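Quick question: what would this complex look like in 3D?
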Amino acid sequence: MGHFAQSARALVRLAGLLLLALAASPAAAQADAPPVVAAASDLQVALVEIAAAFTGETGRSVRLVTGSSGNFSRQIRQGAPFQLFLSADEDYVRDLARDGFTRGEGALYAVGRVAIVVPGGSPLVADGTLDDLKAALADGRLVKFAIANPEHAPYGRRAEEVLRHRGLWDAIRPKLVIGENVSQAAQFAASGNAQGGIVAYSLALAPQLAVRSTFALIPEDWHSPLRQRMVLLRNAGPVAEAFYDYLRTPAARAILARNGFAVPGEGG
Amino acid sequence: MDWTALELSLRLGVFTVAVLLPVGIALGRVLAYRDFPGKSLAEAAVALPLVLPPTVFGYYLLVAFGAASPLGQFWQAAFGRPLVFTFEGLLLASIVFNLPFAIQPMQRGFEAIPPEVRAAAGCCGMSPWQALLKVELPLAWPGILTAMVLTFAHTLGEFGIVLMVGGSIPGETRTVAVAIYDRVQAFDDASANAMSALLLAISLAVIALTFAFSRRVGRRLG
């Protein structure tokens, strides 16, 4: 039993360590933890840049979470502790505002575009008119095509609208691979696992994507506009408020513009 | 490499093990020695997380812990923050989905003790507590250790439930497994590679150590 006694002592020591760890648990440090900002995945690159600039200027930081706007909207309703929500679509923000989850109606911060992305070595051509996509569907070059989930990702819904506009939706449906959000759809397409995809222009411009794929913008009147609205949530603290204000400064707007967003005029 | 996520995963694993160690010993022992009506159902309930899709579990937990649920509202009123999408909520989920990994090996450990040995302990005048501490726990030790290691390793690896009730918040609910998913979507293959390799190495090392250890203990006690 000597061995057990040894193990038991080790266990007691472990328990002691655990108590120490518990004492230093995150709940205690919660109050001054940086606020969590939930952002549409098309902001994956631009927002990291803006957050870094914000930290450089104010010395304060935010925690970024990216995903599909529809998922975030649902999580906010379930009580997610986000303080600022940057949606890829203004409908989600308006619905949340109507149901009392936000502070006001927020502000329009960008207008997004969609692009067709084609990985290197794909039999497709990056053609913004989608004529080549249509031909590829007819001659069997196309095996898999990536879009975000139209059910809860605004870019997925715009991809569907574009494909419907060209009359390709029914033919392409069996070939679609659906990303959980637009970033995953872009990953499917740029990795070469699909022959192409319709994703956010801002992601097509991302350096990690640009090295392995080509893209072409799709005319913006082929889909309803991607008016991207942000809003402070009810529990927003001062850092989240400062970041919200920072997003409307010329510096932040310049970063958005460089990353493929149209930036609305003052007061938009 | 996302060190915050790694630290969070390790902390979640340690806390889960710490809670499930006494719970597992108590429940594992009851299931091993007692017969009661509905025992099969109780054992089935404990095993449920093994077969239930993580999404089903995640969905029910979301409903049970959510802002609209009684538990969620009580938590919000008591602690001033929600239960879902927080570390505490994740810990609660982790405890529930690790029940089979903690209880089953412990139950097997207690079952493996010959009834004569336990009867002898009673004959010697040991109280139930003395018998537990001096006879049963030392003999069931390999099972208990296996349970702790499996629970820890499984916590590091759980993905679906964490994503559903956690929401991938850095330093709060973004575990290593979720961070890998996140990095892949962000086209950050270097980080995804590093974290995947590390998780693979940790998992293999932890499980190999247990096997080696329980073999040694088995020889000594056997």
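Answer marked as accepted. Chain B has eleven helices and no strands.
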